[in-house]
Amino acid sequence: MSTTPTPLPPAAGTDLRERIRGEVLRPDDDGYDEARAVWNAMIDREPAVIVRAAGAADVMETVPFAREHDLELAIKGGGHDVAGDAVCEDGLMLDLSSMNEVHVDPTRQTARVGPGAVLHDLDVETQAHGLATPAGFISSTGVAGLTLGGGVGYLSRKHGLTVDNLLSVDLVTADGAFVQASANENPDLFWAVRGGGGNFGVVTAFEFELHELGPTVVAGPVVWPFEDARAVLREAAAFMRDAPDEVSCLPILRHAPPAPFLPKSVHGELVLIIAMIYAGDPEEGARELQPLSGLGDPVGDALGPKPYTAFQSMFDDAVGPGARNYWKSHYLEDLPADCIDVLCDYAARMTSPDSAIGMLSLGGEVARTPHDGTPYPHRDAAWVVNIQARWHEPDEDERHVEWTRELFEAMTPFSTGGVYVNFMSEDEGDERVRAAYGEESYERLAAIKAAWDPQNVFHLNQNVSPAN
């Protein structure tokens, strides 16, 4: 239990407890350490106070309280961000995880989602009606952080980014005011939150458009031995250049998990996994995915009809909380043979058995959306590559971070120069934030930031500085 002294007087914490419905935790309170924990174990910070909001009214009280007491403000939704900005040192951590409600309107095909919901919450409620919206590929990911950064996932080629399906938000501003934003109300703010991160306020509700899907889809991972990885990836990349929008895939170079569909002789060995899905009629799925699933001589195959919710959670155990994580990311216009060689060369030198190199296919509806429609500028990229170092011992940090950075540098000649804001670690800096948005979008975001948060209250994020 932390005993670090804090500048916040006890009376102030008592006053806040009387003003909100949720919990207020100080370092000596039960539940404090659990509340301050985030997914990335490299992040170990101790806020002066944690507010576990029960609703938007609590947020409206808490934001001005933090400003009144000159406390740095961190916002936690799902707490899954690798950069760890959901928690601060000696400031106020606003924990929204209890606000995890999901309300589906099956007639309008919309969902209203709280900022503490994770993808599993969203998927379960929407799939009860045979509906879905594009949202990630790990079910423990927070809806809020994913959405505010753009949101890529298995359904993006068919239905676009998560933000392309966002209809409106409720938001608490830096001065504690409650506002709504949509295409017709505060449109500049609405444009900014669709990819501009948590720079503009605390979103207390999201409204999404939903699409018919499932609950059964044809999906699953197919696994090849590492010695076949180069050849399989070349053919997979060639197929995806003209694949139907319904086809999406996520190739992963990693050590094989002890999955029941894999022979024990493969467990722990370096392999190529391609997770694939057909986001359409299940009767067509196996046929449309055959050009991918039929490549080479797989050592394991779990492709077939299954609940969409089961597919969305298949890799959760491999990336659960409690490990140390460091990521670097690139966008690619293509996945050429020499780029594949670099990826495989570094995979062979992977420094941790828990690390992975993931490559999500993009294109389709993502590319058809106007470039200036959202702050997300990477519409022409065909792939996003995420280098994910993952380990457990602090004394190994340098070795695993170095491997990640070396592969990142080796991949730079193939990159568009852009980066997905949700895949950025805490040490990226302003230059990479600008690369995440492109200069034109960044300048527009900075102007909107100056209008809604001129004092940069919301700066614990991949920060956009207010325009002068």
Notes on the structure:
Residues 1-6 have low confidence and may be disordered. The radius of gyration is 22 Å and the shape is globular. Helices cover 29% and strands 22% of the residues. Strands 12, 13, 14, 15, 16, 17, 18 and 19 form an eight-stranded antiparallel beta sheet that branches. It has a five-stranded antiparallel beta sheet with strand order 5-6-10-8-9. It has helices at residues 10-19, 32-36, 56-68, 119-127, 143-148, 156-159, 187-193, 229-240, 282-293, 308-312, 337-348, 365-368, 397-411, 430-452, and strands spanning 23-25, 49-52, 73-76, 92-95, 102-105, 110-113, 131-132, 166-172, 178-182, 202-209, 211-212, 216-225, 247-255, 270-278, 300-301, 304-307, 324-332, 356-361, 383-391. The protein is built from 14 helices and 19 strands. It has 468 residues and is of the alpha+beta class.
What's this model, at a glance?
With 468 residues, the chain is α+β, with helices and mostly antiparallel strands. The chain contains 14 helices and 19 strands. Strands 12, 13, 14, 15, 16, 17, 18 and 19 form an 8-stranded antiparallel β-sheet that branches. Strands 5-6-10-8-9 form a 5-stranded antiparallel β-sheet.
Keywords:
468 residues; alpha+beta; 8-stranded antiparallel β-sheet; 19 strands; globular; disordered N terminus
Structural class: alpha+beta
- Report Rg: 22 Å
Q: Report how far the terminal alpha carbons are from each other.
A: 42 Å
- Average predicted local confidence, pLDDT: 95
Helix content range: 25-40%
Strand content: 15-25%
Low-confidence stretches: 1-6
Quick one: overall form?
Answer: globular
Number of helices: 14
Number of strands: 19
Report the biggest beta sheet as strand number plus sense, adding barrel if it closes: 8 strands, antiparallel
